[in-house]
Design goal:
Layout lengths: L6 H10 L6 E8 L2 E9 L5 E8 L9 H15 L4 E7 L3 H9 L3 E5 L3 E7 L1
Parallel strand pairs: 3-4
Antiparallel strand pairs: 1-2, 2-3, 4-6, 5-6
Length: 120
């Protein structure tokens, strides 16, 4: 769901991360290998938006996605956030099922994605 970007734009974005107070991102490693990313953005005391993915297909279906979401929820709670929202492609039934199991409820939708939310 990331809009198109240039290499220069991406470099500027990464260079600005240390100054952001509402955006947190962490790399994900398994057995010392980078496999994904997890984060919270648009963070306020009221809410934050979760994002995360495992790019290595060999990691899918093994509970790692649930661990990422659970970790991010704990991180949000530690930061005093009250609710966490997310966006997910309609076609990503595996992720939607995971989010529902973890207590997220549908809060909106458009033609391409679902919006889900839960209290922390």
């Amino acid at each position: 769901m990331t809009p198109a970007f240039t290499d220069e734009g991406q470099e500027r974005w990464f260079a600005g991360l240390p100054t952001k107070t509402d955006y947190f991102v962490w790399g994900v490693e398994l057995a010392g290998e980078p496999v994904g990313v997890v984060g919270l953005k648009s963070v306020t005391p009221e809410r934050a938006e979760y994002f995360g993915y495992l790019g290595e297909k060999t990691t899918w279906g093994k509970g790692h996605g649930g661990a990422l979401v659970t970790w991010a929820l704990a991180e949000a709670k530690a930061r005093g956030v009250r609710s966490v929202s997310l966006r997910v492609w309609r076609e990503n039934q595996r992720a939607i099922a995971l989010y529902r199991r973890l207590g997220f409820e549908l809060s909106g939708e458009d033609s391409h994605q679902l919006f889900m939310e839960r209290l922390v």
